[in-house]
Amino acid sequence: MHAVRLHAFGPAGNLTYEEVPDPVPGPGQVRVAVAAAGVHLLDTALREGMPGPFGGPADLPTVPGREVAGTVDALGEGADPSWLGRRVVAHLGAAPGGYAELAVTGADRLHPVPDGLDEAAAVAMIGTGRTAMGIVQFAEPGRGDVVVVPAAAGGIGTLLVQYAKNAGATVLGLAGGPAKTALVLANGADAAIDYTRPGWAREARAWLGGRRAAVVYDSVGGDLGREAVGLLGEGGRHIVFGWSSQGVRDGGPLVLTEEEQAARGIISRQVLGRAMLDRAGGDVRVLETRALAEAAAGRLRPAVQRFPLREAAQAHHALETRGTTGKVVLVP
């Protein structure tokens, strides 16, 4: 099979497209003929040798990627034979191997791909979608709420805009550049503002016309995140799940002190990791199942940007330089 391998930590160009032996599923595992593999911003940091959430840098050489969808083409000993030939999607967990034509994973990680959903959309929902479902656990938007979504043209941002609109909220999306703000409007946001323009926050307050936001879903942090927090009213919720404006390797989430929260009359909370899992009852499959169901029902429609598998390095570069919209997916 062909796969993308990393032999040395470093820039995107270190990802190479190679021919490697086909993987063989072990006991309780299945092999998936991959039709779509998800690319996450975290993958770019792991590629440079950061430990990420898995305890240490990957052993090299490695095949990156932890989100796949395709068709089960082989079974390991003890795997349920009913999976053979079915379209499935899975998050591989701590074991990478997704950037490939074939991938193995435990049968207990599989979800059937719902009818009417293609594999690229399924991959978006098993990763980006489950995170979006985890985020809204902490601040469900309601009818009449004003919701601010920075990075609204990204994979998670796209879904949060749709989710808030489905709940009856008024949505202000922030994105970088006219092409991305146009996508945000086409996705259903009530307004989209280009945060690269000087004075964008004044523009936002003018559009709000005296209203204050109830929720800011903050994946960007930094000065942009702080200005977005300034749009919140008393009782508003600042939900933090990233810091893309600071760089995934060198930055950190926007942290508001208890004194600052009290002075503003808001609540700020970081929700990634253990907090999100605990809120879901300790079972990440709850979030995965909900995400896939929302997509199957047509309530959430992930935006996907596809790259050929052999162009994984270009996909990483585009993601790192904010040259993508929606979920980045590799297609063998």
From TrEMBL:
EC no.?
1.6.5.5
* This protein's name: Quinone oxidoreductase 1
Domain of life, source organism:
Bacteria
Q: Start and end of every Enoyl reductase (ER) domain?
A: 10-330
Example of a GO cellular component annotation carried by this entry? cytosol
Q: Which SUPFAM superfamilies match?
A: GroES-like (SSF50129), NAD(P)-binding Rossmann-fold domains (SSF51735)
Arranged from A to Z, the UniProt key words for this protein are: NADP, Oxidoreductase
Output the Pfam families linked to this UniProt entry.
Answer: ADH_N, ADH_zinc_N_2
Family annotation (Gene3D superfamilies): Medium-chain alcohol dehydrogenases, catalytic domain, NAD(P)-binding Rossmann-like Domain
The keyword Oxidoreductase is annotated on this UniProt entry: yes
The protein's gene is named qorA_2
